[in-house]
Amino acid sequence: VQGHLPGALFIPRGYLELQIEQYVPDRNAPIVVYCAGGVRSLLAARSLKEMGYANVSSMIGGFTGWKNAGFKFTVPRVLTEEQRIRYSRHTLLKEVGEA
């Protein structure tokens, strides 16, 4: 199951250093980073600390650990582009919609 923690901000790992300042300008703000298993988030946390962010943590166990512990998470209901094309006539109906 894909998903994310409720209220989480998604910044892809490859863009983290480029985008973090526009989302979190306060370098003392608490930041918790996570990935699927907890390894890539350790690297991301280290990178943020090197950039001067002082209150950064990596979530042990990642998203998989969060789910397995039974905590709540959000699953976005979004159609892929292929599904959007395939079901385009159906989603026009008010009773069906896209979600």
TrEMBL record:
InterPro entries: Rhodanese-like_dom, Rhodanese-like_dom_sf. It holds the Pfam family Rhodanese. Residues 2-75 form the Rhodanese domain. It comes from Candidatus Thermofonsia Clade 3 bacterium. One of its GO terms (molecular function) is thiosulfate-cyanide sulfurtransferase activity. This is Molybdopterin biosynthesis protein MoeB. Gene3D superfamilies: Rhodanese-like domain (3.40.250.10). SMART domains: RHOD.
